[in-house]
Specification:
Layout: H1 7-12, H2 18-39, H3 51-58, H4 61-177
């Protein structure tokens, strides 16, 4: 409870012993001496700098110091930004390299797809030519062969008949010449 009370109220409190009275009076005297010491200057005026002199001597240094600190801070920030810029440039270069690799892979894939398409088209063209040649053989060659065989057989038969007729005619004529006369009509 005494810790919450001010020193003046402590002196109003009755004390039971003489010791407590002395301690309270000594605390009163120390508090009064501390208040009186704050009003008395500690050093003489001639040795301590005046406020205007002190302000004058520190004011030119303060802007220079602040400017120097700000310049250093800006230099640190610029260095930090340069590092970040370099890091971003490395990341950009890495991304550009990946992009170029992807573009190259896409180009290769497109080229491979075109080559495959050309190869497939060529294969289909060859298959179509083979099918056309087979159809041509079936449609033209085989009937041509049969037609040729038919013409040859017809010519053979006609030739044989002509030979037989020539033989008969020559045989009839040869018999007349030999004097057989007209035995039979040839």
């Amino acid at each position: 409870m005494s810790s919450h009370l001010s020193p003046s109220s402590a002196s109003l409190r009755p004390s039971k012993t003489a010791f407590s009275t002395r301690s309270s009076s000594s605390s009163r005297s120390s508090s009064s001496s501390s208040s009186s010491s704050s009003t008395i200057p500690l050093t003489p005026r001639a040795t301590s700098p005046t406020p205007s002199t002190e302000a004058t001597s520190t004011s030119p240094n303060q802007p220079e110091t602040a400017l120097s600190e700000a310049t250093q801070q800006f230099a640190r920030e610029i260095a930090k930004l340069e590092c970040e810029k370099a890091e971003l440039q490395r990341e950009k270069d890495k991304i550009q390299k990946e992009r170029d690799e992807l573009a190259s892979a896409c180009d290769k894939a497109n080229l491979a797809a075109k080559e495959k398409k050309v190869t497939d088209a060529e294969r289909q063209r060859k298959e179509m030519y083979e099918a056309i040649s087979v159809a041509a053989i079936i449609l033209f060659f085989i009937p041509g062969v049969f037609l040729a065989a038919t013409l040859l057989s017809a010519q053979w038969v006609a030739g044989v008949r002509i030979l037989m007729h020539v033989q008969q005619v020559v045989g009839c004529l040869s018999g007349r010449m030999m004097g057989e006369g007209m035995v039979g009509w040839c």
